[in-house]
Amino acid sequence: FTLRFTDERGSDLAIPYTRAMREAMFVGNRWRGKMTADEPGCYVHYLPTHGPNFWDSTAMQQDTGAAIAIDGMLSPQWAIGFAQPFAENIAVVFENRHVTAVRGASDEARILRDMLMGGKLIEGGGCGFNPKAPRHTIYPAGSNAPGALHFGIDLAKPSDYIRKMMPMWEEPPVHQDLVTFDTTVTANGTTIIDRGFLMALRDPTVVAMAARYGDPVDLLEGSV
How far is CA 120 from CA 50, 54, 71, 218, in A? Predict the structure, then answer.
């Protein structure tokens, strides 16, 4: 199946998925809901900054250089190291998971062009999963609110801009996260995120579980 990311700014990024890739992703801690370091060999962030990635090297059996035809354009609304969301509709073009063009005339577009060209996508949509997390934030990897996404890119060379703007950031200056808040994510016609809203928040099982702790609408959608 094809995992597709779109929005009203013109983004259209497609990731070709196989059954083997999907099964490999489901083995990962985040997809299993494991957020504590209680297993041998586990890899867990503390505190967790986001939920599951829709795609990352786990799908490729941890082969970080694996070839995959991730193609299309992403128009991020924000990125790590920038003080404000972008006023311009910047277009980041991917071919075979590598950045081949960054279109835009603003200062932010020029900075991203210098930074991202030749970079490689390593996370295709890290999804926020905390209904009470502030939505319009950028640190440390975009918002952790449900349905907010970040797309991690390993840079072809270290970025002086990141060095200057975030000298104490825990990621090295060879990584950038592009952030969106209103993406629609589909898999062969099934909508997973609808314009930034994580559809799982209305799954009857999730709603019933939330109801054990209070008003499920407030708990799951109060900050959406």
Answer: 20, 16, 12, 39
Residue with tokens 């499920």: 216
Taking phi over 0 as left and psi of -120 to 50 as alpha, with beta for the rest, 156 belongs to alpha
Domain that holds residue 21: 2-221
Overall number of domains in the chain: 1
> What are the φ and ψ backbone dihedral angles of 168, each rounded to 5 degrees?
-105, 10
Neighbours of 93 (CB within 10 A): 16
pLDDT at 168 over 90: no
pLDDT at 52 over 90: no
Q: Is the pTM of this model over 0.85?
A: yes
* Number of Cβ atoms within 10 Å of the Cβ of 4: 19
